[in-house]
What we know:
- The chain is α/β, with parallel strands linked by helices.
- Helix content is 36%, strand content 22%.
- The strands form 4 sheets. Strands 3-2-4-1-10-9-11-15 form an 8-stranded antiparallel beta sheet, with helices on one face.
- Strand 23 (519-524), helix 17 (530-541) and strand 24 (546-552) form a beta-alpha-beta unit.
- The structure holds 2-deoxy-2-amino glucitol-6-phosphate.
- Residues 304-307, 351-353, 356, 359, 402-404, 492, 608-609 line the site of 2-deoxy-2-amino glucitol-6-phosphate.
Amino acid sequence: MCGIIGYVGERVAQPILLDGLQRLEYRGYDSCGIVTYLDQKKSLSVRKLPGKVKDLEKLLKSKPLSGSCGIGHCRWATHGAPNQANAHPHLDCKSEIALVHNGIIENHSQLKKDLIREGHVFLSQTDTEVIVHLIEKFYRGVPLEEAVKKAAALLDGSFAIAVISKKEPGKLIGARRGSPLVIGVGREENFLASDIPALLDFAKDAIFLEDDEIAVLTGRNAKIIDFSGKPVKRQPVHITWDISQAQKQGYPHFMLKEINEQPKVLEDILGQRIKQGSRRIAFEELKIPQAKLAAAKNIIIVACGTAYHAGLCGKYILEEVCPLPVSVDVSSEFRYRNPLVNRGDLVISISQSGETADTLAAVREAKFKGAITLTICNVLGSTLVRESDGVIYTHAGPEIGVASTKAFTAQLAVLYVFALYLGQLKKTLAVDKLNKLLNQLAAIPRMQVDILKKQNAIKVTAHKHHHFGSFLFLGRNINYPMALEGALKLKEISYIPAEGYAAGEMKHGPIALIDEYRAVVCIAPESKVYEKMVSNIQEIRSRRGIIIAIATSGDEKIKDLTHEVIYIPRMEEFLSPLLTAIPLQLLAYYVAVKRGCDVDQPRNLAKSVTVE
Length: 612
Ligand code: AGP
């Protein structure tokens, strides 16, 4: 996945493009570049390199670019290594057109062969370069948007592109299919970006492009046409996020800031969704008729990565409250499995970005099979939101750290509240149980604060164990998905091999791994399976395993059996993931920082995987 930024207006483009790339860098950071139209020379001038935006900034200090129209890109390599030639922007043969791209052109090889045969000269190994040469081929006596339209018609795969040409200075073109692109509407200026954080400094209104649409922007005008050339009318959406939410605010990393934001996020979700006094649960934006939700006989959850782990918790949550059969699938499996989906089944997709390619494809497959599709999503107007029958926003604010933290617990919170809502619709939730759960949920933000207050102790534990070559995470019942999530958090930011397992599976294989060289994190809060977890801990201890336990405050017994204990406040097992998540996130964070890893931009990863 990559980040795209574009500007056209009265101001000098360079600082605006750089600022936008800094806010987009979590989408891809192995190379970057910008291009502007130089009015005096009547030419396009490019600055690009393998490396981060700060390296590009340094280059531009010595070789600045003027011009009030330009585009920029930060890359997560899919075709061609991260090097100078493969960095975007890419130019046509005559350096009259410049283009940046997010997505994958599936038929780029054949197109490239045809274009080379027609005399085009390629300078990179990217699929992207094919697009700019195609536009060049059609850009004869027609406006740039017309040439873009003709080129797009030949492309298979996904793309969000921004294009400028020296033949039409002051015009910025955007086009998309399958990858996000949003217009930022300014005063006497307009912007293009892959997502909202890049616009926060400049525009308060955004227009989301839909698939097969082209944006034609000048400083004074923003119009949209579809790929048939028909004008499209779409109202701007007011951007509610403010810029401070997309800044570190004194924290060393976005990830630590976002871990510490969780109590406030949870409080906001509970406050927005549960009407004080009446305690009525409401989801204003959920456009699915209540009768349809109540009539659903099956729930299928599809998601990827951390969102998938939230979905696994969702199975325990929904089956406990509703109760009806809930299956959970990773999107990339669901979409190719020819899944059994009945008309009227409720398919819930969970996604922070709303742009994850596999989850999008899974939802399209579910819709094709007649399911009702609901997405739990964090990004206003994202593709998943626009393609689902209904949405419940997590309202966690922009999550910049690549490793998902506050968005994850926000997904859990929405799943709890939605389960209560659905249980009421299906009349399977007694009032006293509803009130008890609402009271317990209301107490959780304070409990999260209590855990965060002790994060230095967790830091000490992390530092003592950061040298281990591998970790095993064990949990049972609703904390089994938390073991998977704890392992993912650790491995994706510290690069330490880490595995999450159902503790009951220990004897079926993983116990062979146990020795004094492996750290085992056991999630063992007070629960109906606590004694089973203690047995697991004793089995590990007898094989000299090093044990870090997450346990309920006051549990002295577990202290005698383990090397380290991270305590969490006493809470019903059913709601404990909202608490166990925090020590798992902090443990991963402090181990990774101690190992000198780039916590916010881990190697090889990107914030949202908008390609397969
Ligand atoms: C989580 O820490 C990872 N960054 C990744 O697994 C992520 O959860 C996954 O790619 C799904 O992203 P989404 O929630 O935007 O769909």
